[in-house]
Amino acid sequence: MTVLEIKDVSIDFPTSRGVVHAVTDVSLSVPQGRRIGFIGESGSGKTTTALAAMRMLAAPGFVSAGEIHLNSLGKTDILKLNEEEMRRVRLRKIAYIPQGAMNSLNPVMRVEHQIWDGIIAHEGAVTQAELQRRSDAALEGVGLDPTIVGRLFPHELSGGMKQRVCIAIGVCLDPDLIIADEPTSALDVITQRHVMQTLREVQAKIGAGLILIGHDMGLMAQSVDDIAVLKKGELVEFGPTRQIIENPRHPYTKELISSVPLVGGESFLDPSAAPKAAGGDSATPLLELKGVSKRYGAVTALHPMSFRLDGAVPQIISIVGQSGSGKSTMGSLMLGFNAPSTGEVLFRGQDVYRQHAAEKLAFRKDVQAVFQDPYACFNPFYRVNHALKFPFERFGLSEGPDHTRAAMEDACRAVGLAPETVLNRYPHQLSGGQRQRLIVARALMLSPKLLIADEPVSMVDASLRATILKNIHDLKDQHGISILYITHDLATAYHVSDFVMVLYKGHVVEAGPPKEVIGDPQHAYTRLLIDSIPWPELDRDWGSADDARAALDKLAEVDRRPDTVYRGSVPGFELSQG
Amino acid sequence: MGRIPVSYLINRLITFMLTVFIAATLIWIIPRLSPVDPVDVMLGRMAAGGGSIENSDAILTQLRQSFGLDQPMIVQYLLYLKNTLTFDFGLSTASFPTPVASLIGNALPWTLGLMFISLIVTFIIGNLLGALMVWENTPKIWKVAIPSAMVFTAIPPLLSGLLLMYVFATQLRWFPLTGAYGLNVEPGWDWDFIVSVLHHGFLPALSIVIVTFGFWALGMRGLMITVQGEDYSVLAKAKGLRPRYILYRYMIRNAILPQVTAFALQIGGLVAGQVLVERIFAYPGMGKLLYDAILDQDFPVIQGVSFVIILMTALAVFLVDLIYPLIDPRIRHEM
Q1: Mean local confidence (pLDDT), A71-100
Q2: Which value does ipTM take for this structure?
Q3: Which of A168, A174, A125, A113 is nearest to A145 (CA)?
Q4: Does A104 contact B232 at a Cβ distance shorter than 8 Å?
């Protein structure tokens, strides 16, 4: 039986520069109990289509053609309901699980109140005892202890717990359809698996249809029955998951599948390129950490660790771990933004946190950074030229306006951007991928010795990740720059790095060349990370909800034995715990 | 709600006391940097009023003694601290020998009454209008009317006061022109007096409200736009909650939090009053007292009023610090 039917829906956004057709002629139906995945890159119209079913399009968007039928409302087109009737459909008939797990709950209300207000809004007066009973049941259904979690405020929950609360809110009225908009995009792989399994479990229990919006083909393969592939507002392919994954017809679908980097799969890099020697004085290492640790109050973010990166031959060292593992703390210590609690960070023998102004200036030129959020890295008031030009001139590298201009154009071309299409633009006129590549170009212009890249590709579309990582990898081969690549994504670390350190709660638990550490993990935590990755291969089992829970219990065991498993070394890099 | 930890309480109390101490010290130092000698000023005033002055040197010495100006600086300072903390600000030089404390004691209730009521009214109206400017269900007519009303914010309170006086007191004769209560009533807790006070206070309060609500409305508008874009506001709508419930419990409830801090800071300024508003309405409050004291170079009164202003600000901030954890649960987490 069909729960929701979308018929020839088109959605337009009138803007001052003409009408943008966000969605064109999409037709699709969701059968009861079935899971449909909407996949596509940003701007493909996947979220817009789903929000149209909720009648929650962001202004000025509107449905310009088509009908949306909800079976339990008879033959009525939900686009014709009035506001009050539509309000009654939301949550009771169609539940929505939002993307931003971190911020989806009202920060000043207790968790159980946020389940109650939904019930009251649709059922009117309900006794306190009944509300309590139902919120307890909903929280239990997603594996949370209602006696504790119900009384907490959102800021007291972890990201995974918050998202499970959102699922509990979504299913408390037994809706016909659940729309989950990238429900795990803000979570690490281990938590992602747990939340996704929980969602599947409760959805199967109440027998609702599910629309899962996402961009990760691996996650789709492991989570849904049918996949709808959207590109620029059009439904380019729709079919059962197995057919889409194993026998994709549309070239765009093939592209989406191949853009998922696989551990052990074919490399997206050119393996023949030989790294250029950086030269320099090999007696003083480029970067050295001596017993560095960092505490924030009672919390130890990073336990004492030491390593030595010679830098004579450029290398890419990956630091992988979940959120809270201390990997970003390491990044900010190495950039001299934070003082270590113990030990010292030495760049060419100089303590990076205790430098004179002149030394600091030289250090800033030699050590560049690429951060996670390409949107926050530009000053919105200046054209992008400013971001490229200013450091170049400030560090005295410019020999005049023409030289600066030429350097900017060369840097753009080096990261695969046509200078005429990006320069002289404002940041908001460029896509996330273009901005992130400009940040790489900006770093490149200063010919640094070391680049610290903190999650450089986690916020850009999958198809662009490979390109940007290739740009970064080229920095090593063609410009002799050593790179510290901080990421939660093991598959990309596998491909780009020469050496991998797996960080867990501030300890290095496993370290060595990527083929060993990620290809054949020995430590329980590394294995868990690898097992939690959703693979775009149907025969590879992602485990059940119980497996995901058992995995979390296993982590507690790791807590007791945080020893490092050394898996070999590479010349020019030495690591020691303590 | 959970209890506020004692360490947090002690921390805030120490901050409060330190603020008051530093402020009291500054108030003592700053007038001493002024080249004007208050005793000379007083003598000058006597001379202007009463013709010639016999044995003026003796009077000078005696006055200096009575104000303690012949003592070493450190003694003067310690004596000042002791007196200030017991609310003994000495004697006014302009209306000698009335104690400053009794001048303030007479003026403070009027200002607190007028300003506190207008501040609360402004806070509620301003924030509500600011929120309505953003809410998607606000009738169109309101969305036009509210920004238009903001024009008043550009008018100086002095001018709006005169305008209101002209229209409502002189022309329509609905409200009395000046003063805090009528000449035909005796001060006391009886009905006639209270009605008279409210009647007299209406225009000054209104003149303050119409020029200051825009400050709150604009601030609230910005905060509401941020909150409207938050994921929890989107989820609230997706939950099918009633629009009014979302407006109050999700949007205003979160957007108001920074405004509460601003409210505390305003309370301090409130004691000084809208100096000019009190002046034109001849309202016997702190603003008028301060205004007259500055004109008369009446240092003890200026010191006393300044100290009371700072004490009130520090007290208001202290109280908001105590209340804040109750309205924003995230703060409790950090303490």
Answers
A1: 89
A2: 0.79
A3: A168
A4: yes
